[in-house]
Write a structure and sequence with these properties.
The complex is a heterodimer of chains A (about 400) and B (about 300). By secondary structure, chain A is mainly alpha-helical. Helix content of chain A is about 70%, strand content about 0%. Chain A is built from 15 helices and no strands. The longest helix of chain B has about 35 residues. Classes of the chains: A mainly alpha (about 400), B mainly alpha (about 300). At the A-B interface, helix 5, helix 6, helix 11 and helix 13 of A face helix 4, helix 10, helix 12 and helix 13 of B.
């Protein structure tokens, strides 16, 4: 418990500092910080309506954050979750074109699996390029995300386009029974349950299973992993696949529960926000849940901020950016041994005060102001004095 | 296709290479300078967007495009300075900081740029390179951004500076061996902060050429990842400023294929052709990287290539 508190202290501190800084920022824009903070809270967690909005946004955030967190535990910085999300949504929307699906929960499950597969393959490609071609996965996953978005637009505006969608190209809408509904009649869809379950399961997998432990060894110390003969490449590919599958499911859920078809509004930046969530959660899948809810809440409050105070909707992006910068900066403070630092600052045993003696004639005081002037000591005496001092110190 | 269409296509791609390639050139030069000092700045994407906004805003407020360029480059340098300072803290990863600044810079630009979406700012003058031709298509395609010559001169200066000057040697030393730098009594962090800031200034010129020449207006989709492609471009150019020119033109040309085809009436695959730069980057990375070995010519301290 104590270690959990210790782990959580710095992120909480960083988010609080980001909110404070954001207050200063909006103050410059002429808004009252107090009012902005209040609206941020109300828009995110004020009433049941805001909670629904928040949780609806938190669901894809959890899944895209896992796309960063799981590979990060294997030592990879994957930032292309947006690509996996977009392709997952595309696969979900395209599956009914090629396969007649039963219009019930089984059909919805098949949609999610299609999304997961598409996302997994896309991120595994980045992992494969790293392991077998030596390409930095951060760059390749991001390039792949742009390729995925191009592919998405090409197909949605091409062969998959529903002729009825005139102004905004989209695929055909999913059948009524295939859509993922709300939990208990609310606006919060089952994607949230999937997200929470994915976080808990992957957290448990990393913490309590041999293969999960092996992934953490590979990420923590590649040399040790090599020495004990762990199949590093296979483990890294597995971690990438799992992460990509999560982001793919996020896309599938967005299509099946929110948009009912694949269109350009699927590309809403959840993949990039997931990077932030994962870093603040320190790549801990279980910690992803509360952080995703918090940032889902900030996202939900954005439109309220725009309506009530007249701040641009991008102000939430600024807040996110500040939080991200501060969380990274706080990483530098993590290992500081606060106790030792405080002790060293605390008053110690009284040192004898320096005596001020009149300066010698041939040595002006201004040259060595801090050292008390001493009469010159003959060499032999000085050595004896030093030896005595040494003995005193070592005793 | 008729000969006229061929001319239009070729002119479109060549002109596009020069127009679309200009931001690539500046961002890759900035990234090259940063990486030579041993750090990678993924935040140049944020620098690019922020400086694009700042230069547009500066030009709109002052009424002078060149003052706008200066404002943009300064904004870019400030954001890059933040990157340099953050990375000098203990245990702060430069890749993660870059992602954070990408988010922060973009958010800040969108926030401050809201009132700039409507107005029209004074634009940079164009250099007409196509005046030899009678063909109006060629003439309009070869209107060159006035910043392009600046970029080429800058590339030459950087190349000469790295090879021949004391400062260039110091930056390269900080990039190749932090220990050697320390042993000679120079501050590694100081050199890297300076190089990152200067790199941000150069990348800011790229942002200026986005909003003050082509496409020539400010909107939130102004950058499509040029700042990130720059990282791959620098690998492709093997950390050589002169090769950055070639790489930037190549990528500009690749990015211009889609619009050029559309201009002659080929609408199919517009979005696919737009992904050509990214695919090209990946192909280049596959060809130039080898597993377990460092890319040729890369600075020894660089974390992304180890």
């Amino acid at each position: 418990m104590r270690s959990v508190l210790k782990e959580a202290a710095l992120p909480v501190f960083a988010i609080a500092a980001a909110l404070l800084l954001f207050g200063v920022f909006v103050w410059f824009a002429g808004a009252s910080p107090m009012e902005v903070w209040l609206i941020l809270f109300k828009g995110a967690f004020g009433d049941w309506f805001s909670w629904q909005n928040t949780l609806q946004r938190a669901a894809p955030l959890m899944l895209t954050a896992l796309c960063v967190a799981i590979p990060a535990r294997a030592g990879l910085v994957v930032i292309g979750g947006e690509g996996a999300l977009v392709l997952g949504g595309l696969a979900c929307a395209a599956l009914p074109y090629v396969l007649p699906l039963p219009a019930n929960a089984l059909g919805s499950l098949a949609l999610c699996i299609a999304g997961a597969l598409a996302g997994a393959l896309w991120i595994m490609l980045a992992g494969w390029l790293r392991q077998y071609r030596g390409i930095n996965e951060t760059i390749s996953s991001l390039l792949l995300a742009y390729v995925a978005i191009g592919l998405f637009k090409h197909l949605v505006e091409g062969v998959l386009r529903d002729p009825a969608s005139l102004n905004k190209p989209a695929t055909r809408s999913l059948a009524e029974g295939l859509a993922i509904g709300g939990i208990g009649g609310s606006d919060v869809h089952w994607g949230l349950a999937i997200g929470v379950a994915a976080c808990l399961v992957s957290g448990l997998w990393l913490r309590a299973t041999p293969s999960g432990f092996a992934v953490r060894v590979v990420g923590g110390n590649p040399r040790a992993a090599q020495l004990v003969g762990l199949p590093a490449s296979r483990l890294i590919l597995a971690a990438c696949g799992l992460g990509g599958a999560c982001a793919g499911v996020a896309g599938a859920v967005e299509v099946a529960a929110v948009h009912t078809n694949a269109n350009a509004s699927l590309i809403a930046g959840y993949g990039y926000a997931g990077i932030l969530v994962s870093f603040i959660a320190r790549h801990n899948p279980v910690a992803v849940i509360p952080v995703a809810i918090l940032f889902g809440g900030f996202g939900a409050a954005g439109s309220l901020l725009q309506r009530r105070v007249g701040l641009p909707d991008a102000s939430v992006l600024v807040l996110q950016g500040m939080a991200f910068v501060l969380i990274l900066a706080s990483e530098g403070l993590r290992m500081v041994d606060w106790k030792a630092l405080l002790n060293s600052r605390a008053p110690r045993v009284q040192e004898p005060a320096l005596r001020k003696e009149p300066p010698m004639h041939d040595e002006p005081a201004a040259v060595r102001p801090l050292e008390p002037a001493r009469p010159p000591i003959p060499h032999g005496v000085r050595v004896a004095h030093d030896v005595a001092r040494l003995q005193e110190v070592t005793r | 296709m008729t000969p006229d269409q061929w001319t239009a296509l070729v002119a479109g791609i060549v002109g596009g290479a020069l127009r679309v390639g200009a931001p690539f050139l500046f961002v890759s030069l900035g990234e090259c300078l940063t990486e030579k000092s041993g750090r990678i700045n993924l935040g140049l994407e944020g620098v690019l967007v922020l400086s694009a906004m700042a230069s547009f805003g500066g030009a709109w407020l002052t009424g002078s495009a060149w003052l706008g360029v200066l404002v943009g480059a300064t904004a870019g340098a400030l954001l890059a300075l933040l990157h340099g300072l953050l990375c000098s803290l203990d245990r702060v990863n430069d890749v993660a900081t870059g992602i954070a600044l990408m988010l922060f810079g973009t958010g800040l630009a969108f926030y401050l740029g809201k009132p700039l979406i409507q107005p029209q700012a004074p634009q940079l003058p164009a250099i007409p390179l196509g005046n030899w031709s009678e063909n109006p298509v060629v003439r309009s395609a070869l209107q060159i951004n006035a910043l392009v010559p600046v970029g080429i001169v800058l590339a030459l200066v950087l190349w000469w500076g790295f090879a021949r000057t004391r400062i260039g040697l110091l930056v390269r030393m900080a990039g190749d061996s932090a220990n050697a730098t320390r042993a000679l009594g120079y501050s590694v962090a100081g050199l890297r902060i300076a190089a990152t800031t200067a790199g941000g200034f150069i990348a800011g010129l790229g942002g200026a050429s986005l909003t003050l020449f082509y496409p020539g207006s400010w909107n939130e989709g102004i950058s499509s990842g040029q700042g990130l492609i720059a990282v791959a471009l620098v690998i492709f150019a093997r950390w050589n400023p002169l090769r950055c020119i070639v790489a930037a033109l190549l990528f500009g040309g690749a990015g211009a294929i889609g619009p050029a085809l559309q201009s002659i009436g080929v609408g199919w695959g517009y979005h696919l052709f737009n992904t050509v730069p990214y695919v090209l980057t990946l192909v280049i990375l596959v060809l130039t990287c080898k597993p377990g070995s460092v890319a040729a010519g890369s600075p020894g301290e660089l974390s992304s290539t180890r």
